[in-house]
Structures are given as C-alpha cells and as structure tokens.
Amino acid sequence: MAGKVLSVVNMKGGVGKTSTVIALAETLATDPACSVLVIDVDTQANASYCIAGDSALTEIIKSDKTIDDFFYWRLVENDRRSIEPYINENISLVTHLNRPLKISLLASSPYLRITEREIIYNLTTRNLSMEAIEGRTVNLLTPMMDQLRQSYDYIIFDCAPGISAFTTAAMMISDHIVVPTIPDFLSTLGVAAFTASILKEIRQKRPELSANVLIARKNNTRHHAQYHNIIIDKAKLSSGTFGVFDTVIPESTAMAQAMNLIDGTYTQKYSKLSDVLSNLAAEIRGLK
Ligand SMILES: Nc1ncnc2c1ncn2[C@@H]1O[C@H](COP(=O)(O)OP(=O)(O)OP(=O)(O)O)[C@@H](O)[C@H]1O
Ligand SMILES: [Mg+2]
Fold first, then answer.
1. Domain of residue 147, CATH code
2. The model's pTM
C-alpha cells in the first residue's frame, strides 16, 4: 500500500475546508477496503471534534495525545518519540452497511496555537529563520508520512485558515492540494492570491504537486454561477498551475447538519448529498 496524502487548504476562512475533509474522509471510507487518517493541523480542532465527538476529544486532549504535544516534543525538545501512540485508530462512530468507517485521527487542540508560538520563539532564539522552522517541520514529517502511507490509503490534512508553518509543511509533504472555495467575488480573489503566491512558492520546491479548486457552498444565484465560470477560466489560463474539480458541493443545510452527526449511518448523515460526495471521491481516487 502507498497511500495518497492530501491537504485541504485555503487562506480564506469559512469556505468549507473542514466540511470537505470530513465528508471526503467518510465517503472514501465507505469502501470497506479503504482506510483514512485525518490529521488536524488547525487549532480550532473542528475536524477532531467532528470525528471524535466532544467527550472523546476532551479525553484525547487531557491525555496529551494531540499533534501539538507531538510537535512540541519533537521540534522543541528534540525528543525521538514516534507518531503512532498519538493516532486514535478507527475512532469514527459512523457506520456503513453495519461496519464502522475505518477513519483514524491525529487530533488537534486549542494548545496548537500556543505550541506553534513556542516552537517559533524557541527556534528563532536559536537563530533559525521561519523558513528553517518550516524546513524542520517538513524534515520531521517526511519520513513519518512515508511510514503512514504504508498503513492508510488516504491521509488528509485539515489546515487552518491563513498560512501557518504547519500548513506550509503539510502542503510540502502532500501529493495533492484541495482548495475549497465559495464561488463569489472575495473568495475568488483569495484563490487568485493563493495560487499566485503560496502555491507558486511551494511549487518551486515541489513541481509535481497537484492543486485543484473545489467549488463549495455554491447557491443558485447568478453571482455564484458567474464566479464559478471565472474560476474555471482562470484555471484554464493558469497553464496547469491549478485545476477545478467537476464536482460542486452545493450550499445545503444538510451539509451543515451532517457535521453535527458524530454517530449514526453514513446514509443518514449524507442522504441528500451522497451522489455529489461519491463523485468527489471518484475524482480524488483518479488524481495522479
Ligand atoms: N456545503 C455547505 N452548505 C451549507 N453550509 C456549509 C457547507 N459547507 C460548510 N458549511 C458551513 O459553513 C461554515 C464553515 O464551514 P467549515 O468549518 O467547513 O469551513 P472552514 O473553511 O473549515 O472554516 P475555517 O476556515 O474556520 O477552518 C460551517 O458553519 C459549516 O457548517
Ligand atoms: Mg476548518
């Protein structure tokens, strides 16, 4: 097995990154042969909450089994501990055809923000630049990913809005970047800024990295239809810098409500959206 690594990113907040991570992880895992690891690198810990639920996440945070603790020990204290004890194996309570979805979680916590600051402070006082800090994170994650690829078919990073050292590192070690965006004026500006600056910079080091925009939260207005077309045109003009998935996630209360369903069946959770999501999963499986 050599799993694929995806990062779901957008500097803009509230565009549907976490909802995409959860829906995609759960849809991919409806295939009984498919195992998924979600890595939450957002201090909001929304993806962790959506997968583990409140009480399990509280336990995980209390017992320091979160990614910030791992980063702290590895990056600040130079400890050699391995990632495995931090992974909550098959934690999903969602079932499909009477079988729990094979979704594991490397959870985040609100302390990630503090840890990131501490790491940056600690390493800058050792005269390391931000680039060097990102480099250290990449050097830590690269062999770890090679190992995790042997255990999971898909490893999906839920990234925070804005750009942090951890988001940059996640993109650097990914095979594919998924950029959910709302097809409106401001979000389209955000995509243009992302592809022109951050993606360009990362591509200099990782020319083979693929990036695709996912139109999310699309409504039936002319404004959304217009900006959907503008994004498609920009992708065509980008000479392969980024593509656009054919699948579109509609603005729908069902999607917002699904994030609140920690257990139950996949079909109950996504009844109205399951066709859309299975199309998205097929496009993800088809990424080269
Ligand atoms: N397709 C959709 N239809 C309706 N509501 C949606 C849809 N996708 C996401 N939402 C809602 O929009 C809000 C933002 O979604 P989400 O948290 O997935 O975005 P995000 O990009 O991860 O945000 P952040 O940048 O804060 O991490 C949430 O309230 C979510 O329930
Ligand atoms: Mg989010």
1. 3.40.50.300
2. 0.96
